[in-house]
Amino acid sequence: MGMRIRCPKCRQSFEAAGPDAAGHTQCPHCQQRLKWPAKAPAARPSAPAEASAPVRLVGRAPAKAPPRGSKQLSPGAIIAIVTGGLVVAGVAFGVVYWAVSDAAPSPAEKK
Q1: What global pTM score does this model have?
Q2: Residues 71, 88: Cα–Cα separation, whole Å
Q3: Mind listing the pLDDT tens digit for each residue in 4-53?
Q4: Cα 32 from Cα 62, distance rounded (Å)
Q5: Which residue, 35, 37, 36, 30, is CA-closest to 62?
Q6: Rounded to an integer, what distance in angstroms lies between the CA atom of residue 35 and that of residue 26?
């Protein structure tokens, strides 16, 4: 008879036959590898028959998604935005300068 284990990742209980050679078992629901408990917990008279043995997750923790609304720009994107703004400002200044210099009469034309 195996041991009843509750997976800490998906919270599903399952009957595990025993550990593999490395001392691990795998949850049939979420496929998470679990470390087999060192020893079975002592049976208490008040404990329910479905008591689960404590297990530990093995491997990397799942990656957490970044919180919503906290998007950060990379340094390259910031440089591109600043450079684009300077180019637009320079072109606008050039167009205004060209328009004003053509409209105003030169000092030689005033005489």
Answers
A1: 0.34
A2: 25
A3: 888 888 888 888 877 777 788 888 888 888 887 766 555 555 555 555 55
A4: 11
A5: 30
A6: 9
